[in-house]
């Protein structure tokens, strides 16, 4: 297992405790983590993203998309099939799943679309005006003469 020294990060930054926790969690995850269902994450604009998940066999009613603060949770539960079917080959996996994605601060879900066996979730990063970079004007101070008090 690889270990990384994050001390240079701590020397040059303040308040990144959550990022360090996220890195620790990612690095300690089992490499045999389940990859079902397959998904893509793409950048669609300057501050826009899309997560596409293959959900063949699920209807919109069987899927759930929920944003909890900085976490996106996608779930799928197959409705109980009352008909008894005999499969000669079953290659379409319709097993229940829960997929979690960690979101950065100020990222929110703007919509979800179920189309052609794919679930597309659109996200956007909206940094509040108060947190955007701003230019600070440097004023020129008038020179002051300091007089010595005589005693």
Automatic annotation (TrEMBL):
<dbReference type="Pfam" id="PF00011">
    <property type="entry name" value="HSP20"/>
</dbReference>
<dbReference type="InterPro" id="IPR002068">
    <property type="entry name" value="A-crystallin/Hsp20_dom"/>
</dbReference>
<dbReference type="InterPro" id="IPR008978">
    <property type="entry name" value="HSP20-like_chaperone"/>
</dbReference>
<comment type="similarity">
    <text>Belongs to the small heat shock protein (HSP20) family.</text>
</comment>
<protein>
    <submittedName>
        <fullName>Heat-shock protein IbpA</fullName>
    </submittedName>
</protein>
<feature type="domain" description="SHSP">
    <location>
        <begin position="30"/>
        <end position="141"/>
    </location>
</feature>
<keyword id="KW-0346">Stress response</keyword>
<dbReference type="InterPro" id="IPR037913">
    <property type="entry name" value="ACD_IbpA/B"/>
</dbReference>
């Amino acid at each position: 297992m690889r270990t990384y020294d994050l001390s240079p990060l701590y020397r040059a930054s303040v308040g990144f405790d959550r990022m360090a926790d996220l890195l620790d969690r990612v690095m300690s995850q089992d490499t045999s983590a389940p990859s079902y269902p397959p998904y893509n994450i793409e950048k669609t604009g300057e501050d826009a993203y899309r997560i596409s998940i293959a959900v063949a066999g699920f209807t919109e009613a069987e899927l759930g998309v929920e944003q909890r603060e900085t976490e996106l949770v996608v779930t799928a539960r197959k409705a109980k099939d009352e008909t008894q079917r005999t499969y000669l080959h079953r290659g379409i996996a319709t097993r229940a799943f829960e997929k979690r994605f960690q979101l950065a601060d100020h990222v929110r879900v703007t919509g979800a679309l179920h189309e052609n066996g794919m679930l597309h979730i659109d996200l956007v990063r909206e940094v509040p005006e108060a947190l955007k970079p701003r230019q600070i004007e440097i004023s020129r101070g008038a020179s002051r003469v300091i007089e010595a008090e005589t005693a």
